[in-house]
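2024-03-11 09:14:02 INFO queue: dequeued item AAA family ATPase, len=336
2024-03-11 09:14:02 INFO validating residues
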Amino acid sequence: MTKRLETITGEKLFELELKESRVIIENILPSGLHILAGSPKIGKSWLVLWLCQMIATGETVWGFKTTKGKVLYLCLEDKLPRIKSRLMSITENASEATAFATETLPLGGGLVAQIENYIINNPETMLVVIDTLQQVRTLGSDNISYANDYKDISALKSISDKYDIAIVCVHHLRKMKDDDPFNMISGSMGLSGSADGSYVLVRDNRMSSKAKLFITGRDIPDTELRLEFDKVNCLWKLIEHDAYDEFENDEPIIRAICDYIREKKSYYNTSTHLLSELAKCGYKEEITPATLSKKLRSHADILNEKFNIYIEFIRKSDKRILSIRDGNDTNDSNIA
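2024-03-11 09:14:37 INFO prediction written
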């Protein structure tokens, strides 16, 4: 007899108190399975080693907060002397929260069990880095297929989902250029399509110290970071973040909400009601309540840090409420 589908109604789903995915680096790295791709020798390993150090010590990454925890770095193209040299180049204080391994079993041959065993014995783990993905795959380059790529990624994704951690697989780019940097990730669409996030590091030119880091994912906004490699300190430094420019120029709904809250000082009602209030103030763009809530979630940190506006999402049995207040206003009686 065919097993019946397990279903849930939209109404019941809205009533559930579900845990949201953990954020490892705000606006940049949520929990899940991610691909970091770039050309050979571009500096991918320097970048992930520094990210490991920042998460292990709880320090910010380009000004973004991190969730402090243990890190497992599978550096499979290097030996311990090189890892030690690189670590000493980026920090004076190595952390006990970072563990390194230079050899593992392959995917499909015990790697998943090795990673899971480490996490079970180290429940504070936040990040696992596999550098590089090709080193743990048993297939040769001539056996690349969507099915095989999807199978490999799904095996790792199952761990990230089960333990709510981030797994970053360092990978290579195709030699062929493309207007969409994510199309340059080596392999089939099974890799990037099944991953929760993709990161592509591209230098301005081979001899340049400047590069762009393109970011896309299911739980993070599409972002482009302008970076420069500091050869003295061996660090990728942030020189420009386009998300702020996008906020200023391409998000009129957020600007309209800022103006509204500056005048009203506070708001406590649904997204639907807020859209009707903004329409009364002259805002004309058509946008759904769900899209408005999504935009507010993605811009909550920027609104807080740049404009001192605080947003809280409150769940009630029959509806979801937005609580927005002007942090510059000291009169709490304005809050409905």
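2024-03-11 09:14:37 INFO annotate: The domain at 251-334 is CATH 1.10.10 (Arc Repressor Mutant, subunit A).
2024-03-11 09:14:38 INFO item closed
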